[in-house]
Records
---
Amino acid sequence: MLRIISCRQATLFVEQQADGALAPLARNSLWLHLRYCPYCSRYAKQTVLVSELARNAVRAAASAAQPGLSNEAKERLQQLLEEGERR
Amino acid sequence: MSIALIKPEPTLWVARFGDELYRFALGRVSDEACAEELVQDTLLSALDALASFRGEASERTWLFLILRRKIIDHYRRQARHPEVSLAVVTPDGPTEADFFQEDNGHWRREQYPTSWQSADGALEQQELQQTLRTCQDKLPSQHAAVFVLRFVEELTAEEICKELSLTSSNYWVIIHRAKLQLRRCLEKHGLGRAA
């Protein structure tokens, strides 16, 4: 049986569904809700974009175009490793 | 160059992998000193664990595995709230009540999600990524840590609950709140129609 759910529940279900953590009954309720609620249906698309953006941001920040370690840091680390190896 | 024989050479780590490890860390912690510390911890741990390196993976892969572990530990520390045990959802930050009406659970009118302009193409934009980072920094630290572990480090919900000693229901409360808040913050500062 289909249960009518609120937007509050629907937005939570959206997150759980993306994780495969939603029972079939709840999934049906969510499907129905998203059909008639333009706000939650918008939310469902945008919440995916938020995660993608976070992943892209980290990838961009880790790209080779970014500055690497400072020379001082490199020297310091090098020294630590050489000392460590001698021990 | 032969890749058949892998013998770790710690004195070459900084020159070979230093920059790469550092950028990987910096993309995640957004603080240069902290990224440097993570790299240092990684290299020293690797040196201590040299005996456990059997050449099954490449030296580089092995170092990145150690760094990844250090980063997860970093988030775990970040998630720790001084007064509240990890098993409790931190009370600071917006809750569902800020977004939904108390009586019927519908969106509050002023919180209706609006449509985003050119969201697809915008995902690559540096400015937007910076905005998201600012938005993430506004989250309660526990929420920020859970968000990153799930969506950037791509740990499973189960792994995160284990790492942070969260119950499954607390985990979902946090994910829900973090997403609601980040979505709204992005809308306010760049993706919304009015911007």
---
Amino acid sequence: MVANIGYYVLVLTFLASLYGAGAAAYGALKRKPEFVESGRYAMLLTWPLLTIASAAIIWLLATGHYEIGFVASVTSNSMPTYLKVTALWGGQEGSLVFWAWLMAAFTSAASLRKWDRDRELLPWFIMVTMITLAFFLSLVVFFENPFARLWLSADGQQVTAMLQPTGAVPLNPPDGRGLNPLLRHPGMIIHPPALYLGFVAYVIPYAFAMAALITRRSDDRWIRITRRWTLVAWIFLSLGLILGGRWAYDVLGWGGYWGWDPVEIAALLPWLAGTAFLHSVMVQEKRGMLKHWNVVLIILTYALVLFGTFLSRSGVLSSVHAFAKSAIGPMFFVFIGVTFIVSLSLLINRWEMLKGENFLTSVFSREALFLLNNFLFMGILAVSFWGVIFPLISELVTGQKITVGPPFYERANGPLGLGLLILMAIAPLSAYASSTWKTIGRALWKPALVSLLVPITLYFGGIHNPTALLGYTAASLVAFVTLYEFWRGVMARRRQHGENLPLALWRLVGRNPRRYGGYIIHLGVVLMAFGIIGIEVYQTETQATLSKGEQVTLGRYVMTYDDIAVFDTNDGRNVARAVVSVYQDGKLVDELYPRKDYYYDSQQAVTIPGTRSTLADDFYVILVGLDPDSQSDATFKVYHNPLVNLIWIGGVVFSIGTIVAVWVISGRRRANKTPSASKSTRT
Amino acid sequence: MRKLQTVMGMTLGFILLSQVFALPAFAQDGGPTDDDVNVIARELYCPVCENIPLDVCPTQACEQWRATIREKLVLGWSDDQIKDYFVDQYGPRVLAEPPAEGFNALVYILPPVLFAIGAFILFMVMRAWKVEPPTPKGKGVTVESEDPYIAQLEQELRRRDE
């Protein structure tokens, strides 16, 4: 009953989204506002309808309706209720519904704004978002139905279908296969929604950009309307990536946070395009330049959002042949191709209309440096995209599968990343239209001089690796320039208004949250850069098989293997849990419990490391295996990860910076209180 | 009875743990250590476990591969010989990167070529933009804003947005 209701609600939502798109476009073309309004109501209906469908899936998941194929594939009796609920996005069918639900929520929220003078954008905004929503709903209605039931066909095969196939009998297993154990982690509970929120939020600026093109609006209004949506998309996508890294570090048991896996890259690609967009829109807002480029970037971001979902949902990554057999793969492929070509055609058609309003006055101006920043982001994007798709192309052409692994990406993207760091140090000191190498040189020399102390200190402290020294120097330069910018702003306020330091800082940030939020984000990136260089260049590891009481040494650390216990848990796991003592410079500093959890329902194992975390480093222990003969000798892999926690701390700073940058309303309120403050900072 | 079930469950679990989890080969005295094996293993990928380097892959198949590496090291094979052995057996996909030969050389050639083309386009764009002198008032008005009243309105609205 609930499954039937859920499915028919999905069908209804699909029809509503199609109607919304059609009615809005018809109303705009025939100048019949009542149709546009009708389309808007259809759009507003999609979210409550999808809420009902999602609630139906959650109810089926939570109550163990294993006659439903999706429920049987992602839940089991032993799973706690919160995991059964979050299993909604743990499998293909549920995650597509969840994607659609989030998108309906975002588009509804965006459509509730005051349209006033932007009313001509509304029908096209509805059309673009509803077509996207209809596409995702078509996948679940026709191919990946989360409400489809299990049946035993006449020839004894288990099949999944909504309606009873001829000769088949209903199948109602007593238990499900359970969620993939790797997904039973707090990080993985938050990580997919964060990524999805980032993905769907990027549909909003794309829809406004298309609406602006269709209505021949050449101004930057679409950018201003979607400024906050873009930042919201960006923060969620960033959070999703950071949380994914943390999850990998905690669960995957390989001592790292980023493995250049195609699924990771699938989420990174729209982030790269979105970050380039975030910078380049400022040039259009301030100087009326890069109009074509901004549209290209948002089209690219939207296409990459779809591409990322396609990569992780179509089975194409395991093999091009799996893709061909996948029900939704070709659909995705066609939709991405069609939307990309139509969007670019529209842009080409409006090319003349979007000519820039200014010219480049200096290669050291802010706009020129932002363009260079975009170039480097595009470089990283191109390398990463190429690395992901090349194995597929190679398999198609040569028939042989190949791997494009981390060394390829690191070698190509490392120098580009370093270039971005250097730009992050220079660009804040430049001004729109007027900077020259002399003005930048004058602003840069003091922080540059201070930052040189860092590599010198590090060199005499024993760090001689050129990559590390170069990276730390660039990151330090960014940090000092950013702090210098804060200092100059605060001092200017103190001089003009006599404010104390905290108040001056508060008002400085509040007056221009976008600028100073951006600087805080840069500081977050600096911390992350320090952490990344620390673990990438200086990570050490060793593996040893120990009897109880034996020890292994790694750098200044000694680890003693004390004990092991193997036991069952109430939630369907068999746990092997070791106890090890960690000594640093001969002194006992911690006791860790690395373990392996075997899940009976899914017949899969998960490695949970034991970690001693400090600001300086992590001592990270993995229980690799047990000796079946002695039943107590165990093999451990031990990592020393210097500065890795700066990555997570940097992620937090990064997030705070983005929140500050979104803090436009509060900033405006403060600015109104102190109108004369505008003289103290550059714009 | 319940206790017996628990004991049986634990025993079964331990057996499964022993079989499903990686069972590392234990180093012989004087033979290659786990670290020696992992130096090579981290540059190899098994065909089954997508994108997981061999040194950290927990499956039994990968454990057998690591055991093979150990055997070859005992026989005195070099790192390259061992990698070549796996390539011969399973194809080039076992390597972290494809050999730069034949069609696969494209993976290395295209990025620098694209970078050079991109740099050239960037240079041309910047040069084209420098042809005319800058407008005196910074940001110009939009195409639709040529009417002075509309321009004034647009400016005020823009200020309101900021």
